[in-house]
Amino acid sequence: MGIIKKMHYKSKLILCYLVLVSFPLILCLVLLYQSIVKPVRENAVSAIDQRLDQELNTINSKIEKIRNVSYLVSTNTVINKFFVPKFYGDLELIEILNNDISPLLSWLEASSPEISYYHFFTNNPSIPETQYLHQYNDYRSEPWMQEMEHSIFDKGFYLEPCHINRSYSYGYGGEEQMVYSLFYPLLTSNNFLEVCIKPSVFFEDMKTIPAMESGFVAAVNSDGKIISDLPAEVTADFRHSLEERLMEGDCLSDSNKGPFLVSLAQTEYLISIKQIGSLDSWILCAVPGAEIDGPVLKAQQLFTLVILAAAIGIVLLSYLLSTLLIRKINTIIDAVHKIQEGDFHVAIPVNGEDEIDQLATDINYMSFKINELINRVYKARMLQKETELSALQAQINPHFLFNILDTFKMIAIIHDLDDFSDSIAALGNLMRYNISPASYHCTLEHELQIIRDYINIQNLLLNNRVTLLLSVPDNLLRFEIPNFILQPIIENSFVHGFENKLSELIIKVTIYRGDSSIIIKIEDNGTGISAEQQQMLTAAMKKSTETLEVEPLSLEPQENESSRSGKSIGILNVNLRLFLLYGRHYSFTFSSSDLGGACNTISLPVSIPTKEQEENFLNERSKL
Q1: 101-152 pLDDT, tens per residue?
Q2: How far apart are the first and last CA of the chain?
């Protein structure tokens, strides 16, 4: 398991492919072996069996022909009449033999060359013994005669196994040779016909047609002796070795008829044997093992080539498939490395719908969202910095100004100028708020205090004509909102809503909780805002946010409406900050107020990123 864990993913894929394919491959190879290699030997053995069957059919047809001829002789009227039990005189006997029997037998020998000799056994004592005629009683005690009588009684004929030619009394002895004897009974009792057939009659064609290329077919008797002629190239020693081998292993028994291998003359032979039932002999086919194994070896070589080709093909296919899969994964890894290095402008090509393509799609989306979030936070910080620069312009030494304002405040207190003292304190608080270190959020309570200070300063300028109405539940005072959001809107009311107005000025701030948002409404009793102005202002806000999504934020202060203090952050600036902080999850709308002027309504989501979360994110971003 440890080795597998250390392997590359590509190597694991190749290993998996090989393991999965090995099982069906082994099965296919086994089937292929069964269909290619094994049938080669089986076909060779089958060809040998077919040759033996062909020889058996030929032998059986010759036996049947000889039986037919023998049967016709045994039933011949002339012959049977001659053997009718009666006494023959010498002259009569000589006349019948010379005129009837001898010409008939001579004709039979001439017309049936496959039959070597004819012998008749009779129990008529008046018939003399000749080369054809023998007294039955003289041989009745012989085992072969008793076996003949028993077989004729059961089957009607008797075919004696191969034996040495018997020399009867007055018979033509001739040379000793192996013959088969076929016995038939004559129509008269205790008279029998014997025909003698040389083995060559049955097996003479065997040596003319070789078995396969260099094999041979031979016939053997029950003693394991070869009784047929062999090809000229078969030596006497080879013949003797084969006969010994046939007898050693009891190869001629009925229980061992299958092919077997023997080593003869330093050559291995495949021997196949079949019994000739009616002759009590066997025919065998001997083929050199090289002729059998040669095609088998070629088939095995072909089989080996097929295995190697299949193995190489599987390895190559596994390598190609794993390379295709790894290529996608490597592309994803390269993209992740770029993200780790801070490059979020990655786009992994997606050409499918599998799990890897889905992962690539998710990484593309994650990179886009991270890049969007970074731009949003970055733009929010830049916009905050612009606010700070706007608040700090014309400041030379804030501590010097604070000290001067504190001095003025002490002088106002000494001279009982309470309104003047409060105004100076409000101005100091407002200046401290503007030039304090960067902060993205503040509580509603803090933001409302800044509004009160700002109204106090305006009352100093406008002779206390400004009334501030606040409607805020206590449980929302700790709710955090982006800082410096409400004051620019109220300042806009003074710049545009109360211009040239000498009557009492009313600013009403209403804050309440919605279903999933905080609603902030800022109303005044100024000149109001027409429908056309609402549309123009809404379009300008939309255009600025769309531009901000595709273009980097400029560090130059934006040109907005003029106020009594010079450059104003303005409503567009507030809207941009809200967009950068909340995305599309806020709303900023305009309408007419029941007080007679304009109504600005801001809806903020309840759940927003905290200051700590944004600062932590920026710190982590800076480390990359």
Answers
A1: 888 888 888 888 888 888 999 988 888 888 888 888 888 889 999 999 999 9
A2: 37
**The 3-state secondary structure of 64-109, one letter per residue:** HHHHHHHHHHHCCHHHHHHCCCCCCCHHHHHHHHHHHHHHHHHHHH
| 482 close to 577: Cβ distance less than 8 angstroms | yes
Q: How far is CA 548 from CA 101, 211, 383, 488, 505, in A?
A: 140, 98, 11, 20, 36
Could you tell me what percent of the chain has a pLDDT over 90?
13
Going by C-beta distance under 8 Å and a sequence separation of 6 or more, which residues neighbour residue 293?
A: none
Cβ pair 512, 519 in contact under 8 A: yes
Distance (Å, whole) CA 619 – CA 68: 119
Mean of per-residue pLDDT scores for the chain: 78
- Cβ-contact 508, 469 below 8 angstroms: yes
Using the 8-state DSSP alphabet, how is residue 208 labeled? T
Report the candidate in 616, 613, 606 with the shortest Cα–Cα distance to residue 480: 606
What's the token pair of residue 199? 């083995």
Residue 269 pairs with which residues in a beta bridge?
262, 288
Dihedral pair phi/psi, residue 482, rounded to 5°:
-60, 135
Spatial CA neighbour of 290 closest among 257, 251, 263: 263
Q: What is the radius of gyration, based on Cα positions, of the chain?
A: 64
* The token pair that represents 363 in the structure block: 């990484």
